[in-house]
Task: inverse folding
């Protein structure tokens, strides 16, 4: 039975699609069968990242009930499979996003891992993506607004009785003022499954005439190796997962750590 991870941030532009695509490839490189689902129905980008050209059947058709999910699954890089969203907004308001739970339930026995690229925010479509998963993987930048939004997403997940697996820290650069990994873990009361450095290689991969995932464009750079390290930690092939201290309660850990962070900067 496959593991279903919803990749969630609470904030747009944090790197959910980049994480979904590259983590999927990294898991496939380890020998796992991987399906990537684009649940960002309004702002779909996963198919662009993974090199699909206007797929004729998409998750929009599946959620409308006009096609089975198996007809909307395509081959992706390095053995991954992709269930893309359509780029057209014409069917967006008509789809039944709550069908996503049934879709993942039908597919989870066919894959070792299903990664759901969730929309930004905490609205209906995000809740559907969370509900369709077995656990949530948060991604945040090392900034106070981004961590605060990730914390809100965590609360929503907990209210849905969904397990929040851990957090990934993206775009870290050791710049003065960034929130450290330890501080983020204390704020969110979650273990860290890795950091992805701010990388010109990632930006460059989006500027190519044909966009490519980083693990295809520059597979040996430090950011690509960060994705592989995250895949090893998630699968238990690398057991060094940085963990949190003893929990202090749902809100106390976040606000106490946030207060201490700002005091240090005065």
Result:
């Amino acid at each position: 039975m496959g593991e279903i991870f919803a990749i969630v941030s609470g904030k747009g532009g944090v790197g959910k699609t980049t994480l979904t695509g590259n983590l999927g490839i990294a898991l496939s490189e380890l020998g796992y069968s991987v399906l990537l689902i684009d649940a960002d129905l309004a702002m779909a980008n996963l198919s662009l990242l993974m090199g699909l050209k206007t797929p004729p059947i998409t998750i929009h058709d599946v959620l409308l009930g006009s096609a089975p999910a198996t007809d909307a699954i395509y081959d992706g890089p390095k053995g991954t499979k992709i269930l893309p969203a359509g780029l057209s907004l014409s069917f967006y308001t008509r789809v039944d996003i709550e069908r996503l739970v049934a879709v993942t339930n039908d597919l989870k026995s066919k894959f070792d891992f299903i990664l759901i690229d969730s929309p930004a925010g905490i609205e209906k479509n995000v809740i559907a993506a969370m509900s369709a998963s077995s656990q949530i993987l948060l991604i945040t930048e090392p900034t106070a607004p981004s961590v605060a939004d990730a914390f809100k997403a965590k609360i929503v997940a907990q209210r849905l009785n969904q397990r929040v697996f851990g957090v990934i820290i993206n775009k870290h650069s050791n710049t003065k003022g960034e929130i450290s990994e330890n501080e983020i873990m204390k704020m969110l009361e979650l273990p860290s499954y890795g950091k992805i450095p701010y990388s010109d290689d990632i930006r460059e991969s989006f500027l190519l005439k044909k966009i490519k995932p980083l693990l295809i464009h520059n597979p040996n750079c430090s950011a690509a190796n960060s994705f592989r390290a995250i895949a090893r930690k998630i699968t238990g092939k690398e057991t060094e997962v940085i963990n949190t201290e003893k929990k202090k309660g749902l809100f106390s850990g976040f606000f106490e750590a946030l207060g201490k962070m700002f005091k240090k900067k005065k």
User: Anything to note?
Assistant: The first strand starts at residue 3 and ends at 8.
